[in-house]
Amino acid sequence: MDTTEAAGPALFAPTRAGTSPVTSPATARAHTQRVVCEGWESPSRRARPEDVIDLLLVVSELVTNAIRHGGGLAGFEVTPAEDGVRLTVHDHSDVIPDVALGNGAFPRGHRGNGYGWPLVIRLAREICVDRRRTGGKTISVLVPLRPSPAG
What we know:
Heat Shock Protein 90; HATPase_dom
């Protein structure tokens, strides 16, 4: 499946204060945390801490997989949505993971030795893996966030 891109993948993810170079799982987590605080949360709405932990875990897994198995990180975007945060990770590999359509446990086709992709499947929604016209692939997921109860 090909995706149409208006421009190449952004290696820098935009923030309100400028740009944030995302080159590692740690910088991706820090950028994502800023986006949640500045773009999803408000004075009357805070994300549940356990949901933010899940979100940051998914960020770590996707970015680590791009670096280790995808020929390197080609871009990373974080977009606040009403019901969570959409993560988009671009890498340089055309290979679509055999387990991309698994059910959250180790799918029968799982040949890896890690727990990363099954964890992503369990914690994220709307998972989409597309080959890019310019080479590589894009993985996009929505990680749900719930508001903390008032109190």
